[in-house]
Design a protein that fits this description.
disordered N terminus; binds 5-S-methyl-1-O-phosphono-5-thio-D-ribulose; 2 domains; S-methyl-5-thioribose-1-phosphate isomerase activity; Rossmann fold; methionine biosynthesis; alpha/beta; four-stranded mixed sheet; 357 residues; Four Helix Bundle (Hemerythrin (Met), subunit A)
């Protein structure tokens, strides 16, 4: 298993996506923090299943896993069809694209891999593997840069110091490594600029209670877990100065799709003069989607909501509405932090300028 050199004094990052022994190895996030189980995947349909079933989750991590999935798809297509591999790979690309609908990083990574399909008749695998690894390394570099930009902004804001609140898991597990919103938290903590992080538990998959809590404990960052429904009361009490979240897709007008509950956090933050920061690489910005209303929101079905830890605490056959993302209007976002820079009023013009820079 490879690890990255430490470059900035911050702790080296957990990596949950590793290419090793010519295959894709994924840390099974469904089993954390209880057990660290690595799954070995050697074809693209298995990668698509792992994305759909939440073995790997978080927008940038989904894109990176899909990029390695294309490497496995190209291997199979070249083995079966030789120089005609470009046609033979299409069904696998379709399967990967359909794995989850909301995080645009999936389509972004597939498009980037496809753009590297060369006209040569030779084996495409080595070149595609190089690109998938580059996508992962670029994501880690983007996260570290966004961590510094987001921390700078908070350090210079009147609402600095004290505690921050984060939602879902946006850390090393959700990315190539280091994290988006959690990367800002890590950087702030490294600078002694925050005292405490409040992590929402994030029903129904408990990404906060299981994954963010696990990452924060490893870095020894003081953290307190809250029920999702406690967030507004916490903000009303003061003490939390910034809510920091990631994104699954940012539309051309700056609307942000992220884990269900993000919109309620943004409303509560605005009401209580708490800063609301979205941290996302430009691979999460989808200029082809005009507004949040056009973003497909994944509904994972009733079963995941009606059960809790394998048990059914309530009525098993009750209808349940289970959208796993929501849309926060751009006007509620105080800062959109990307690796290309920070937008403090993320509207269509600002996003267009950023993407052209
Ligand atoms: C850097 S991760 C940003 C988002 O992907 C994250 O906040 C999120 O909503 C993850 O949802 P998940 O359903 O766990 O894939």
């Amino acid at each position: 298993m490879s690890s990255l050199p430490q470059t900035d004094g911050l702790p080296d990052t957990i990596r949950a996506i590793v290419w090793d022994d010519d295959r894709l190895q994924l840390l099974d996030q469904r089993q954390l923090p209880g057990q660290s189980v690595w799954l070995t995947l050697d074809d693209a349909p298995a990668v698509a299943r792992a994305i759909h079933d939440m073995v790997v989750r978080g927008a940038p991590a989904i894109g990176i896993a899909a990029a390695y999935g294309v490497v496995l798809a190209a291997r199979a297509a070249y083995r079966d069809a030789g120089p005609d591999w470009r046609a033979a790979i299409e069904p696998d690309l379709t399967t990967l694209a359909a794995a989850r609908p909301t995080a645009i990083n999936l389509n972004w990574a597939l498009a980037r891999m496809r753009a590297a399909f060369t006209a040569s008749d030779g084996d495409p695998e080595p070149q595609l593997l190089q690109l998938a690894a580059a996508i992962q390394h670029e994501d880690i570099a983007a996260n570290r840069h966004m961590g510094a930009l987001g921390a700078d902004l908070i350090d210079h804001d009147r609402r600095n110091g004290g505690a921050v609140l984060t939602h879902c898991n946006t850390g090393s597990l959700a990315t190539g490594g280091f994290g988006t919103a959690l990367g800002v938290v890590r950087t702030l903590y490294g600078r002694n600029s925050i005292e405490r992080v409040y992590a929402t538990e994030t029903r129904p998959w408990l990404q906060g209670a299981r994954l963010t809590a696990w990452e924060l404990q490893q870095d020894r960052i003081p953290a307190t877990l809250i029920a999702d429904s406690a967030a507004a009361a916490l903000l009303a009490q003061g003490g939390v100065h910034w809510v920091i979240v990631g994104a699954d897709r940012v539309a051309a007008n700056g609307d942000v799709a992220n884990k269900i509950g993000t919109y309620a956090l943004a409303l509560a933050a605005r009401r209580h003069d708490v800063g609301f920061m979205v941290v996302a690489p430009t691979s999460t910005i989808d200029t082809a989607t005009a507004s949040g209303a056009d973003i497909p929101i994944e509904d994972r079905g009733a079963a995941e909501l009606l059960s809790y830890g394998g048990h059914t605490p309530g009525v098993a056959d009750m209808p349940a509405w289970n959208p796993v993302f929501d849309v926060t209007p751009a006007e509620l976002v105080d800062a959109l932090v990307t690796e290309k820079g920070v937008l403090t009023a993320p509207d269509s013009a600002a996003i267009d300028g950023l993407m052209r820079a």
